[in-house]
Amino acid sequence: MTQQQLAEKVGIKFQQIQKYETGMNRVSASRLWDIAEALSVPVSYFFEGMDSVDVVSPEAASGASNLPSDILADKEALELVRSYYAIPENQRRRLFELARVLSDAAA
After folding, report:
1. Residue 26: CATH number of its domain
2. How many domains does the chain have?
3. 53: which residues sit within 8 A by CB, 6+ positions away?
4. Distances (CA, A) of 80 to 22, 34, 55, 83
5. CA–CA separation, 92 vs 98, rounded Å?
6. pLDDT at residue 63, rounded to an integer
7. SMART domains recorded for this chain (predicted)?
8. Alpha-carbon separation of residue 54 from 15, 25, 47, 49, 64 (angstroms)
9. What is the 3-state secondary structure (H, E, C) of the chain?
10. Checking CA distances to 61, which of 5, 51, 87, 107 falls within 20 to 30 Å?
């Protein structure tokens, strides 16, 4: 499904879908529900592979490291997210797993 097709099903402009995909805009719970319905998947689909250990409150995350409270307000972080989503999906998944392994090794 293209971004345009998804946007039409959800009732928004495709540019908004692009902003969700790149992380420029956050996806509200109600919008996530709309997207799940448009894709004919349960909302839980977007959280597959997560367990309770992976879920950290924003308060805990900001106190646990030197991350800014709004990470995407950081120019470098936003550029990194945009570059990440420009990578083909199969390579992006492998890069994600590599980053996860490296961050675990550094801890």
Report:
1. 1.10.260.40
2. 2
3. none
4. 10, 27, 22, 5
5. 10
6. 47
7. HTH_XRE (SM00530)
8. 30, 22, 10, 9, 14
9. CCHHHHHHHHCCCHHHHHHHHHCCCCCCHHHHHHHHHHHCCCHHHHHCCCCCCCCCCHHHHHHHCCCCCCHHHCHHHHHHHHHHHHCCHHHHHHHHHHHHHHHHHHC
10. 87
Consecutive 10-residue runs of the chain (107 residues): their mean pLDDT? 93 92 88 92 84 55 58 80 86 88 77
Integer Cα distance of 94 and 97 in angstroms = 5
Distance, in Å, from the CA atom of 54 to the CA atom of 33, rounded to the nearest integer, reads: 21
- Alpha-carbon separation of residue 11 from 7, 17, 103 (angstroms): 6, 11, 38
- CA 107 – CA 103 distance, rounded (Å): 6
* Same domain flag for 45 and 68: no
Q: Looking at the structure, do residues 107 and 64 belong to the same domain, yes or no?
A: yes
- Residue 12 confidence (pLDDT): 94
CA distance 105 to 42: 33
